[in-house]
Design a protein that fits this description.
Blueprint: E1 38-40, H1 45-50, H2 54-65, E2 75-80, H3 112-121, E3 126-131, H4 164-180, E4 187-189
Parallel strand pairs: 1-2, 2-3, 3-4
Bound molecules: 2-acetamido-2-deoxy-beta-D-glucopyranose.
2-acetamido-2-deoxy-beta-D-glucopyranose binds near residues 48 and 51.
């Protein structure tokens, strides 16, 4: 979900059928394996969380991660910003794919550094960092939102060149900044909802 898009919360009425359906759960049969359940504090939520006073902050963390007084979540998903200054580690284009990137790291990452470290104190080890998009200057539509393609992927060329390696470098740099803060990012994603150009989105903090 790009930060720039207008978010409209939707209540979805699934229209549950009235007819009874029998659901049989066989706990002895292993089908899809579930690694765990998690939460995201993207788009500044981690910063709001971090800014709480000590007591509600600890209570909130307990609710999420404590295995005795909370949900015992084991996964967090952080957002790798792709916008301008204050959002992305590469807010301005280096001019060309081979130009020297001027990375910017504030050590806070909209509260997600704090949130990751806090989650780790509860035993969370699975830290998924996901870019909702490449920075706009690396894409065919020049925008981090509204679809578009990474310049250089199959069938997509840009006058500015092939940005695939530059984008990979950008993602790796993000992981390195976390590593320097003592946080091991275990999973790395490079996109989110690539086909979605609608203004109305279903917002789920972990899935979208
Ligand atoms: C949290 O506090 C910092 C420091 O005062 C501030 O820069 C930041 O904007 C605050 N975050 C939110 C979401 O209000």
């Amino acid at each position: 979900m790009p930060a720039s898009s207008k978010v409209v919360a939707l209540a979805v009425n699934v229209g549950l059928a009235l007819a009874q359906t029998t659901v049989t759960v066989n706990v002895g049969s292993l089908l899809q394996q579930i690694d765990g359940f998690g939460v995201s504090q993207a788009f500044g939520r981690a910063s709001q969380f971090q800014n709480l006073t000590a007591s509600p902050r600890t209570q909130g963390l307990d609710y999420l991660f404590s295995t005795t007084t909370g949900a015992g979540l084991t996964i967090i998903r952080n957002r790798i910003g792709s916008g301008g200054a204050g959002d992305s580690i590469l807010p301005t284009s280096p001019g060309s794919p081979t130009g020297t990137p001027s990375y910017v790291w504030d050590g806070v990452d909209a509260g997600q550094v704090w949130f990751s470290q806090a989650a780790m104190t509860y035993g969370v080890k699975t830290i998924y960092a996901d870019a909702w998009s490449a920075p706009g200057f690396m894409k065919t539509n020049g925008n981090e939102a509204n679809g578009g393609y990474l310049c250089g992927v199959t069938g997509e060329t840009c006058s500015s060149g092939d940005w695939r390696q530059a984008y990979a470098n950008f993602l790796v740099q993000y992981v390195k900044y976390y590593q320097q803060a003592g946080i091991s990012i275990t999973h790395l994603g490079f996109l989110n909802e690539p086909d979605l150009v609608l203004v109305v989105r279903f917002c789920h903090p972990l899935l979208h």
